[in-house]
């Protein structure tokens, strides 16, 4: 299946400063974002995700490389000539204009006829359920309402791509969850390509069609939420997306010898030598015939599940997440020695960073 | 235990000094205002309440002309100064910091630092040459001189407003297809307006009050209100001067109140 490309970066680099002191905010990143997908750029602060977004918006020009929009080179085109709109982290609503005038701004600048603008503004107000607030000034709105207006304003001109720069980070948890669903709904409804920037892995997993994980100006992995979660390419990705246990060992003949001396059969593994294994806490089971011995140090009750902090024979610690039984009691005693086993197919062999 | 932090207000004699300072500041002004309502001819002897001197000042042809001249000069100077100051403020804030930036600030604020009498003498000599060469002796000299020394007063509130403005707003406008000019016209300028208005008002007050530069630059028969009052004081001092001063005081207080309301931080 071939899919049309909405945005493409080709070896896009952005350096600040020159010579040996130059900071590579973005280090030759190539990425291709498909038309109509919800794409998330995920990474810790300073990883270059916002820089990449700014290059697409046109607020900054790459030091080298190219940015393409629908196959057209837009690298040196100013932001006002790109059919791309942004939802800013601070919303950046015009404080001197009403909600309706804010939403109309882009269409007015495009020189659309008044009747069309009025209709479109009404449509957008309905889309974000803000019809009652049309004549209010932004300062009179709550954070969540401002967020909706910012979204409506950016969607009104029907851009080819909508860029969202950590738009939910200023909202409280409950509102953030609501807006996650709302964003996904709007994206599906409008069919517009969304490029969403966040440092929140849960946000990325719940909303995205595909995720690009970034670190230190580089793109480490691109894939669907399940690929990223279940098959991280390296330790950083495995650690950044969700919780993970890491175990070092020697791989030989389809089994790994752990630092504890125990062996873990991995029939599908090829190659040999020093490896790092990643096992998600929810993929560990307590099994009387399990290959690993562990001492239960502490259990922490989280409602839906219970976290068991386990010490292995060599002193290293891992966490197993067990689904809480109806009684809430796992029946395990702290200090007890258990045998544990990873679920079939849950062990990932990682490259070293 | 009580917090025994050092506080200037607990120093011995603090209250005494504070009261003395306020007395010195306000007693002369209050006295002047009270005596502007004096019915007698003297500025020192109270002869009962009257609006007589206000009526006399109001009907005095010289006062009328000087007032109109003062207002024309102050309004023109304030307008010119706020336009120049807006351009200067945009030029010095809307760009990455550059070499020689401090020098530019110093040059813009030069009238605040150079003694006014020096500027006055320089303008006198400079304009004298032009007057001889062109033959023109109108009000334009005074307007230009006032606009020049008003620029730093207009510059400060405008620059403060620009520096407090969220640059993302201009970015958002560009993102929504506004050209750089449209961004300025539709976003930057409306948000800057209170700062410009404040700068214009401050300039107006500063121009209205000027004596030294006006005295040196004006041609014969071009008295402004302050230079007219100075001239009057050389002859007979009557409560008319008190009445004019009080009227000026009221106007200034009103404008400065408006200035304060425009520049105070919201939310």
UniProtKB/TrEMBL annotation, chain A:
This is Spermidine/putrescine import ATP-binding protein PotA. The keyword Transport applies. It is an enzyme of class 7 (translocase). One of its GO terms (cellular component) is ATP-binding cassette (ABC) transporter complex. The gene is potA. Its EC number is 7.6.2.11. Belongs to the ABC transporter superfamily. Spermidine/putrescine importer (TC 3.A.1.11.1) family. It catalyses: ATP + H2O + polyamine-[polyamine-binding protein]Side 1 = ADP + phosphate + polyamineSide 2 + [polyamine-binding protein]Side 1. InterPro entries: AAA+_ATPase, ABC_SmlMolc_Importer, ABC_transporter-like_ATP-bd, ABC_transporter-like_CS, Mo/tungstate-bd_C_term_dom, P-loop_NTPase, PotA-like, Transp-assoc_OB_typ2. PROSITE patterns: ABC_TRANSPORTER_1, ABC_TRANSPORTER_2. It comes from Pseudooceanicola atlanticus. Residues 7-241 form the ABC transporter domain. SUPFAM superfamilies: MOP-like, P-loop containing nucleoside triphosphate hydrolases. The complex is composed of two ATP-binding proteins (PotA), two transmembrane proteins (PotB and PotC) and a solute-binding protein (PotD). Part of the ABC transporter complex PotABCD involved in spermidine/putrescine import. Responsible for energy coupling to the transport system. It comes from the Bacteria. SMART domains: AAA. The keyword S-adenosyl-L-methionine does not apply. Keywords: ATP-binding, Cell membrane, Membrane, Nucleotide-binding, Translocase, Transport.
From TrEMBL, chain B:
The chain crosses the membrane at residues 12-37, 68-91, 112-133, 139-158, 187-208, 243-262. It comes from the Bacteria. It is found in: Cell inner membrane; Cell membrane. GO terms for biological process: transmembrane transport. Its main location: membrane. It is a multi-pass membrane protein. Keywords: Cell inner membrane, Cell membrane, Membrane, Transmembrane, Transmembrane helix, Transport. Gene3D superfamilies: MetI-like. InterPro entries: Bact_Polyamine_Transport, MetI-like, MetI-like_sf. GO terms for cellular component: plasma membrane. Pfam families: BPD_transp_1. Residues 67-262 form the ABC transmembrane type-1 domain. Belongs to the binding-protein-dependent transport system permease family. CysTW subfamily. Required for the activity of the bacterial periplasmic transport system of putrescine and spermidine. This is Spermidine/putrescine transport system permease protein PotC. It comes from Pseudooceanicola atlanticus.
């Amino acid at each position: 299946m071939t899919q049309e490309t909405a945005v493409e970066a080709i070896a896009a680099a952005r350096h600040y400063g020159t010579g040996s002191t130059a900071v590579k905010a973005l280090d030759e990143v190539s990425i291709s974002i498909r038309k109509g997908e919800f794409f998330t750029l995920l990474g810790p602060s300073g990883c270059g995700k916002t820089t990449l977004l700014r290059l697409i918006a046109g607020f900054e020009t790459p030091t080298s490389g190219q940015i393409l929009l629908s196959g057209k080179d837009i690298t040196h085109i100013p932001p006002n000539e790109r059919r791309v709109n942004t939802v800013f982290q601070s919303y950046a609503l015009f404080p001197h204009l009403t909600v309706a005038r804010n939403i109309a701004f882009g269409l007015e600048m495009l020189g659309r006829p008044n009747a069309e603008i009025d209709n479109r503004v009404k449509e957008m107000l309905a889309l974000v359920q803000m019809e009652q607030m049309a004549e209010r000034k932004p300062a009179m709105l709550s954070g969540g309402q401002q967020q909706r207006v910012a979204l409506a304003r950016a969607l009104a001109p029907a851009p080819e791509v909508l860029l969202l720069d950590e738009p939910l980070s200023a909202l409280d948890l409950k509102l953030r969850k609501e807006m996650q669903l709302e964003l996904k709904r709007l994206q599906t409804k409008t069919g517009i390509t969304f490029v969403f920037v966040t440092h929140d892995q849960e946000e990325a997993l719940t909303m995205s069609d595909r995720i690009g994980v970034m670190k230190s100006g580089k793109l480490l992995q691109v894939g669907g939420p399940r690929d990223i979660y279940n098959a991280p390419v390296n330790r950083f990705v495995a650690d950044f997306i969700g919780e993970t246990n890491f175990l070092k060992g020697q791989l030989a003949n389809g089994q790994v010898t752990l630092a504890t001396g125990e062996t873990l059969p991995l029939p599908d593994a090829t190659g040999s030598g020093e490896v790092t294994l990643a096992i998600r806490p929810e993929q560990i089971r307590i099994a009387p015939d399990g290959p690993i011995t562990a001492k239960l140090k502490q259990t922490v009750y989280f409602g839906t599940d219970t976290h068991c902090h386990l010490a292995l024979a060599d002193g290293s610690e891992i966490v197993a997440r067990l689904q809480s039984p109806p009684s809430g009691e796992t029946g395990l005693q702290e200090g007890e020695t258990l045998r544990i086993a990873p679920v079939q197919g849950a062990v990932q062999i990682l490259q070293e960073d | 235990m009580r917090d025994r932090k050092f506080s200037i207000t607990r120093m011995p004699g603090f209250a005494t000094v504070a009261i003395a300072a306020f007395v010195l500041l306000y007693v002369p002004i209050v006295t002047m205002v009270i005596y502007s309502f004096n019915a007698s001819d003297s500025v020192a002897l109270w002869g009962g309440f009257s609006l007589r001197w206000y009526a006399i000042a109001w009907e005095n042809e010289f006062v009328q002309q000087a007032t109109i001249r003062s207002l024309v000069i102050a309004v023109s100077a304030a307008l010119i100064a706020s336009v120049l100051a807006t351009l200067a403020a945009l030029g010095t804030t809307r760009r990455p910091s550059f070499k020689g930036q401090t020098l530019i600030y110093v040059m813009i604020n030069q009238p605040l630092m150079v003694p006014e009498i020096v500027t006055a003498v320089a303008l006198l000599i400079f304009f004298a040459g032009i007057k001889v060469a062109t033959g023109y002796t109108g009000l334009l000299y005074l307007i230009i001189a006032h606009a020049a020394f008003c620029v730093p007063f207009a510059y400060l509130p405008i620059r403060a407003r620009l520096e407090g403005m969220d640059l993302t707003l201009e970015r958002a406008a560009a993102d929504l297809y506004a050209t750089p000019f449209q961004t300025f016209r539709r976003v930057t300028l409306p948000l800057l307006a209170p700062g410009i208005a404040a700068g214009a008002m401050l300039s107006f007050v500063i121009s209205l009050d000027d004596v030294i530069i006006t005295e040196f630059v004006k041609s014969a028969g071009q008295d402004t209100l302050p230079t007219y009052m100075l001239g009057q004081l050389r002859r007979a001092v009557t409560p008319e001067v008190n009445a004019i001063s009080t009227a000026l005081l009221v106007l200034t207080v009103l404008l400065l109140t408006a200035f304060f309301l425009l520049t105070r931080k919201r939310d």
